[in-house]
TrEMBL record:
<dbReference type="InterPro" id="IPR000433">
    <property type="entry name" value="Znf_ZZ"/>
</dbReference>
<dbReference type="Pfam" id="PF00413">
    <property type="entry name" value="Peptidase_M10"/>
</dbReference>
<keyword id="KW-0812">Transmembrane</keyword>
<feature type="repeat" description="ANK">
    <location>
        <begin position="530"/>
        <end position="562"/>
    </location>
</feature>
<dbReference type="InterPro" id="IPR006026">
    <property type="entry name" value="Peptidase_Metallo"/>
</dbReference>
<dbReference type="InterPro" id="IPR003582">
    <property type="entry name" value="ShKT_dom"/>
</dbReference>
<keyword id="KW-0863">Zinc-finger</keyword>
<feature type="binding site">
    <location>
        <position position="1203"/>
    </location>
    <ligand>
        <name>Zn(2+) 2</name>
    </ligand>
</feature>
<keyword id="KW-0677">Repeat</keyword>
<feature type="domain" description="RING-type">
    <location>
        <begin position="912"/>
        <end position="945"/>
    </location>
</feature>
<dbReference type="InterPro" id="IPR001818">
    <property type="entry name" value="Pept_M10_metallopeptidase"/>
</dbReference>
<dbReference type="InterPro" id="IPR013783">
    <property type="entry name" value="Ig-like_fold"/>
</dbReference>
<keyword id="KW-0735">Signal-anchor</keyword>
<feature type="binding site">
    <location>
        <position position="1195"/>
    </location>
    <ligand>
        <name>Zn(2+) 2</name>
    </ligand>
</feature>
<feature type="binding site">
    <location>
        <position position="1144"/>
    </location>
    <ligand>
        <name>Zn(2+) 1</name>
    </ligand>
</feature>
<dbReference type="InterPro" id="IPR043145">
    <property type="entry name" value="Znf_ZZ_sf"/>
</dbReference>
<feature type="active site">
    <location>
        <position position="1186"/>
    </location>
</feature>
Length: 1364
């Protein structure tokens, strides 16, 4: 029985001491809880295989046995942190749906389940026996009754515990500084996938934030005051390192659904109605879709299935009500399952089975025919077989992009040649306006010239949709082209498909006509309907001379077409026949070799995918730093070459020094992929290049595991027919080792034996606990495998060389206390430095044992650039230690951060609350203030709503006057005004003291105003004191400048609290509805495309429109006031008609952007139309603002930012540096393929500025530290109560009910801003109550003030924090 992969040891699990514990009080005593932060690895000197490193809550960090030497030091207490969940299971005690962590099922009562917390707190009858399910798919383990068993109390980071910053802290000074304590107020999940993995902590300064306690194996906190966390039964917890076994599947129907699956509901209406209760609910219209095929749109958090039947109908079903419908169509890419017994059984009556079909198992193919009985004809490996649909699975699109299996589409007969034939056959009147085009098609230059002389106005007349110049350019009639150009023919006039005359010259392979058109000034980079230039068309058709002509005349070689392919992408796709074009394009000085297509393939990736060796050489000659560049899925060029069996490309990449041990997101190395695809010729090449044989993927499988799991039936001789020398090379090496019968081995067995001969560990266990010896099912293969491993050991013992496995990826940290020691041999390695590319003896980093850089570069490093482990020691080959670079003198970073925080708080206090841009210049009698422009127009205070009677202007002296001002400088007002030269130093000093004394009166004035005392007399006295001290005779108002800081204020962009972001950069969007006022659908598309371009030009994103019926990332629509949004979402209320709210958007990954259809949208500036009597709103401007929200940006405090709350009214239409910093914080910069960020951290901004300027994009200021993404919060008012509220719950505050009879009026504020109106689905204001929906937007401090006239009767404040 296979073990459950999710039940294996994973980082993030919470553990307690186990049955074999012998390590004293390292855990803080029995009952102490810790977190698994690292897994043991084969060959590690400190954490060998079957061991784990645990970070205990009380601070100790060390390693323990989890099956090592047969001992288990730990017990698994909770695995909710790694995402273990039991869908559709409800705890019958606490009623939580979708039980997280281990499940406890009563064996006595029918269908009675408990969660871990309820089970350990003695809920239900203690005399009943239970079954334990570690995961949703593990087999149950029967347990004895709890009655009479001892319970051990838990201690650690639980609710109420006192904590300080821990070993993985990376959150700056959020805790107030090193050693500051906080209290845990809640334990919850980081996201919907995990549970109990983070802790909400309130610090001494009142701030509350979320920190990791097990999320992805990180622990941000250390417990200094333990809190009780319940109990546990030691006898009932599973041993860590002993995985649970999988349940036996009754049928394939029990498999979970995935997005994109085809499903049907085949139940009766009455049965379906009962099942829908609590699983999406029942709607009578659902009966119409019984028996219809739908597509799984998504799986809800409860495990219910959301099914889409057409572009506007979706229903939520109980998963048990659906049946998976396997359907494939012609052109679908599929994979044949590799289970031989299952295929033989399923093929009975469906095409049958023959042994010749064995090589097709596990391979990828394409459906070429669908038979009437449902069977499919599939092309696999050059042959076609008939398979049952049950033998096939859909191939993942992301894998299909990396595997070059797509067949080239055959070009249809050109529509252009058909049009020419029709033109030549026309017998029209010689005076017909389109006759000139006919003569051009016939090549009659004389008649064409005669027509031009008699009718020059017909030079651009079209016939069959084309002009005479276009036809002449296509046919290469140079003389006629010259005559038409002299007659002022339109060189850039497009046809119905967007083709200009230059496009026609490229289509017709007419270089001379192309040169003539370019000399006449035609648009060299004009785009047709598919966004292709003439250069694109010439490259796609292999017209070398035309390509040379276009490149010589300066055509842009970097322009992408509709699929984001540059001309060089197309040349690479054409294969070896376009080598000349590749040479021409790569010699253009301005070519961008880092350009990527719509699927994220750079030119090097694309050349490796297609096996274009010449392109690979040319690209690396221009940009060698791209050799290890990764796609979004982690694939490098070597991955793609290995996956698609491009041996020559792999050799080139290895010669250029690529990292042969690089791994993709699934932790697969190039060796994994070569073995997986049975590319035998690449395996010896990669092993000889130093590829680590025992590197494991995300399943814990090494290349040896993969070889034995796949290709067990594929004969090795089958690859000889293709001319690949790889099988012969591998066979010769096996035969040289004395392996008998090696020529009769299958591919899997031969590769496995070869890897064992090269030092692969045949006893290495994957995450399912299976070693290669367990996977070798045939005795012959098992003996051969053991013999090869023995030969390697003998060769090593005799000193006979042989490639040993490369260094393992060690993730130890310097503060780990080691219980176990394993000897590991290391040695010097001469290679190329990964930073400066110089050949030198590399420095050995400890503890990770990596050698990556030379001594000079190592001095500045704090972390290993390969594994990101903190460096403890840097050792030369002779054993001496390399000294680290001396840090530059300067103030401590903690002090600088604290000062910056204080400065930001001061800035917020003196900023105008209306425009959030200028500083406060006027103070009202109530104590609040505003800037001069905003304050002058107000009749009531925007904070307390009191009528404004007095406006007090605030002044401070100018901070600096570098030299004596000009004579007219006395009248200068504003920032930077200077004291005239004639003012004496004594007078300046007296004035400074007096004015500062006046400013110091400001807090007192505010206090007097709140107490009801008049503020004007006190301020007048202060002003009189200033005037008395002014001995120079200069008016005080001319000497003083408005209040301003000594340095300009840094604006702050704002991100969502959960840092919501997209996980990919190639976003698609669809337009579901169009505006009904003014704009046509075509104009709407053009405006939205312009808005998307504003973001794609400064970010890694690319945007592409798809059809409305296709799935997409973003969904755009124009809706009336009462659309469904305002009913379902607590974040967005209904639209309000013309003006007011223009649009709203959802944060990632929702992707909804909704525009108010009542507005009058235009392409142009926002303005008032006196003719129509309405406001005309710029669609591009508003759409760009909402796209920013859809990408994860909230409103910015920068006054000139596009994401400012009032950007539409202020007219700022361009993206500012503020938005760029926000995007860079979320997604990185445009140079994500380079290493600019790491270079900046290494100090290259100072030492190698020319290198940074040449290789790093100017839009990414890597030599500037990004500002923090959020502004400092205002301190909470006195008498503040903190409420932690579950997300989505309605919260009501009541205020002043007992004193309303005193005729007081209630005022509500959120974060010191007044609340005046109710917003449906957002907040509701009553006379003495306020109701809100708890969500991330509504988090903050709510204050109630009860006033009677100018007297404050009472105040209350509540601080709301959301618990998801």
């Amino acid at each position: 029985m296979d073990p459950d992969p999710q039940a294996g040891v994973q980082v993030g699990m919470r553990v307690v001491r186990g049955v074999d514990w012998k390590w004293g009080q390292q855990d803080g005593g029995e009952g102490g809880v810790g977190t698994v932060v690292e897994l043991g690895r084969h060959g590690s000197p400190s954490t060998p295989d079957r061991t784990v490193v645990v970070q205990w809550d009380q601070g100790t960090r060390t390693n323990y046995r989890a099956g090592y030497q047969g001992a288990h030091d730990l017990l698994l207490y909770d695995n909710a942190q790694i995402g273990v969940r039991h869908p559709n299971i409800i705890c019958d005690c606490c009623k939580k749906h979708g039980l997280r962590g281990m499940r406890w099922k009563c064996r006595v009562c029918f269908d009675y389940d408990l969660c871990t917390q309820c089970y350990m707190h003695n809920k239900h009858d203690l005399a009943h026996a239970f079954e334990r399910y570690e995961t949703a798919h593990s087999r149950p383990v029967t347990l004895s009754p709890r009655q009479g068993l001892p319970r051990i109390p838990l201690r650690g980071i639980f609710q109420g515990a006192k904590v300080v910053r821990g070993p993985d802290w990376e959150w700056g000074s959020q805790d107030g500084g090193e050693g500051k304590q906080g209290r845990v107020v809640d334990i919850r999940g980081w996201d919907v996938e995990t549970g109990r993995s983070v802790a909400s902590v309130t610090w001494a300064d009142g701030t509350t934030n979320v920190y990791r306690v097990g999320h992805k194996g990180k622990v941000d906190l250390k417990c200094v005051g333990e809190a009780a966390g319940g109990f546990y039964y030691k006898e009932h917890l599973p041993r860590l390192g002993k995985p649970a076994e999988l349940q036996r599947r009754v049928s394939a129907d029990g498999q979970p659904f995935q997005r994109g699956d085809k499903v049907k509901c085949l139940l009766d209406i009455d049965v379906l109605r009962d099942m829908e209760e609590g699983h999406g609910g029942w709607n009578p219209r659902m009966a119409e879709f019984i028996g219809q095929t739908g597509t799984v749109h998504r799986i809800t958090d409860r495990g219910d299935v959301r099914v889409q039947f057409n572009h506007e109908t979706r229903w939520t079903f109980h998963p048990g009500a659906l049946t998976k419908h396997n359907s494939f169509w012609v052109g679908d890419v599929v994979r044949v399952i590799d289970d031989l017994d299952a295929v033989k059984r399923l093929q009975a009556g469906h095409g049958e089975w023959t042994d010749d079909m064995a090589p097709a198992l596990g391979r990828v193919g394409k459906v070429v025919k669908v038979f009437g009985d449902g069977n499919l004809r599939v092309a696999v490996g050059g042959q076609r077989w008939t398979f049952s649909p049950s033998c096939l699975v859909a191939y993942r699109p992301e894998e299909d992009t990396n595997l070059d299996v797509a067949e080239r589409a055959r070009e249809n007969k050109s529509s252009l040649s058909v049009a020419l034939d029709k033109l030549r056959a026309q017998k029209s009147d010689p005076e017909h306006p389109g006759r000139l085009v006919v003569e051009a098609a016939l090549g009659n230059v004389a008649r064409a010239l005669d027509l031009l002389r008699r009718h020059p106005e017909q030079v651009d007349t079209k016939n069959q949709g084309r002009t005479a110049l276009q036809v002449a350019a296509y046919l290469g009639q140079v003389e006629l082209v010259r005559l038409l150009l002299q007659a002022r023919a339109g060189v850039d006039l497009p046809d119905d498909e967007g083709h200009t005359a230059l496009h026609y010259a490229a289509l017709g392979n007419q270089p001379e006509a192309a040169r003539m058109l370019l000399s006449a000034g035609c648009g060299a980079d004009a785009l047709d309907g598919t966004r292709s230039t003439a250069l694109h068309l010439a490259v796609q058709r292999g017209f070398l001379e035309v390509v040379v002509s276009l490149c010589e005349r300066g055509c842009d070689v970097n322009l992408p077409d509709g699929h984001a392919n540059t001309p060089l992408h197309s040349a690479i796709s054409a294969g070896a026949g376009a080598n000349g074009i590749v040479e021409v394009l790569t010699e253009v000085p301005s070519i961008n070799v880092a350009a990527a297509d719509s699927q994220g393939f750079t030119l090097l990736h694309h050349a490796s995918l297609k096996g274009h060796a010449l392109a690979v050489r040319r690209i690396l000659a221009r940009a060698r730093q791209l050799v290890d560049a990764k796609k979004e899925d982690g694939f490098t060029a070597l991955h793609l070459a290995a996956l698609n069996n491009h041996r020559e490309v792999a050799q080139i990449l290895i010669q250029e020094g690529c990292d042969v041990n690089v791994r993709n997101r699934k932790l697969q190395s190039p060796l994994h992929l070569a073995v997986q695809q049975a590319h035998v010729g690449l395996v010896p090449l990669l092993v000889d290049a130093g590829c680590s044989i025992d590197t494991e993927d995300e399943e814990g499988d090494t290349a040896l595991h993969v070889a034995l799991q796949r290709h067990q039936l594929l004969p090795l001789v089958a690859d000889r027919a293709g001319g690949d020398p790889g099988p012969l090379q591998l066979l010769s090496r096996l035969q040289a080792s004395g392996l008998p019968g090696s020529s009769e081995l299958t591919v899997g067995a031969a590769v496995a034996c070869f890897l064992a001969l090269e030092g692969a560990d045949v006893t290495y266990s994957n995450h399912r606990g299976r070693s290669p010896l367990d996977l070798a099912t045939e005795s012959r293969v098992l003996k051969a495998l053991q013999g090869c491993a023995q030969r390697f050991r003998e060769r090593q013992a005799s000193g006979g060389g042989g490639a040993a496995s490369g260094p393992r990826h060690v993730l130890s940290t310097p503060n780990t206390v080691t219980n176990l020691h394993v000897a590991a041999a290391t040695g010097p390695e001469a290679a190329e430095c990964l930073v400066c590319s110089e050949l030198a003896l590399l420095v050995l980093f400890s503890p990770c044992q990596h050698r990556t850089v030379c001594e000079e570069c190592a001095r500045r490093m704090k972390k290993c650039i390969r594994c990101q482990v903190v460096i403890n020691k840097k050792l030369r080959p002779d054993g001496s230690e390399v000294a680290s670079a001396t840090p530059a003198p300067g103030p401590p970073r903690q002090l600088v951060e604290e000062l910056q925080s204080r400065y930001r708080q001061m800035e917020e206090r003196i900023t105008c609350p209306i425009c959030i841009d200028s500083h406060i210049r006027l103070v009202f009698q109530c104590g609040h203030g505003a800037c001069a422009p905003c304050g002058a127009a107000l009749s009531a205070c925007p904070i307390c709503r009191q009528p404004i009677r007095d406006r007090i202007q605030i002044f401070v002296p100018a901070p600096h006057c570098p030299s004596g001002p000009e004579p007219d400088s006395e009248s200068t007002m504003g920032r930077g005004a200077c004291v005239p030269a004639k003012v004496s130093g004594a007078a300046q000093g007296g004035r400074l003291g007096a004015v500062l004394g006046g400013l110091c009166l400001l807090p007192a004035l505010l206090l007097l105003a709140r107490l009801g005392a008049p503020a004007a007399p006190a301020w007048s006295a202060a002003q009189r004191e200033v005037n008395v001290l002014d001995a120079s005779g200069v008016p005080t108002a001319q000497v003083l400048s408005p209040l301003s800081p000594l340095v300009p204020r840094k604006r702050r962009y704002t991100l969502t609290p959960a840092r919501l972001r997209w996980d990919h950069f190639n976003l698609t969007y669809r337009i579901l509805s169009f505006p009904r006022n003014l704009l046509s659908p075509r104009e709407t598309r053009r405006g939205l495309a312009a808005a998307f371009r504003m973001w794609s030009e400064v970010s890694p994103f690319s945007f592409r429109e798809v059809a409305p019926e296709q799935p997409s990332d973003l969904r755009i629509g124009f809706y009336p006031a009462n659309h469904t949004d305002c009913l379902a979402s607590a974040l967005h209320h209904c639209f309000d008609g013309p003006t007011g709210e223009l649009a709203h958007a959802f944060f990632p990954p929702h992707g909804g952007i909704h525009f108010d259809d009542s507005e009058h949208w235009v392409l142009g500036p926002t303005r008032y139309s006196w003719k129509k009597g309405v406001w005309l709103t710029d669609l591009v401007h508003v759409a760009a603002h909402e796209i920013g929200h859809a990408l994860g940006l909230m409103h910015s405090q920068h006054g000139q930012a596009l994401m400012h709350l009032n950007a539409t009214l202020r007219g700022w239409k361009a993206l500012s540096q503020d938005e760029l910093w926000g995007l860079h914080r979320l997604y990185g910069c445009l140079d994500r393929l380079f290493v600019c960020a790491s270079w900046a951290r290494k100090g290259f901004c100072d030492t190698r500025r020319r290198l940074m300027k040449r290789l790093c994009p100017s839009s990414c200021d890597f030599c500037y530290e990004f500002p923090f993404p959020t502004v400092a919060t205002t301190p909470p008012p006195p008498r503040t109560k903190t409420r932690l509220v579950p997300e989505g719950r309605n919260v009501t505050f009541r205020c002043g009910q007992k004193i309303l009879h005193k005729k007081g009026k209630v005022y509500w504020y959120k974060d010191q801003e007044p609340l005046e109106f109710s917003y449906p689905g957002y907040l509701a204001l009553g006379e003495a109550r306020l109701s809100i929906i708890a969500n991330a937007v509504n988090e903050g401090t709510y204050t109630c003030v009860v006033r009677r006239h100018q007297r404050v009767l009472t105040t209350y404040s509540w601080r709301v924090r959301v618990r998801s």
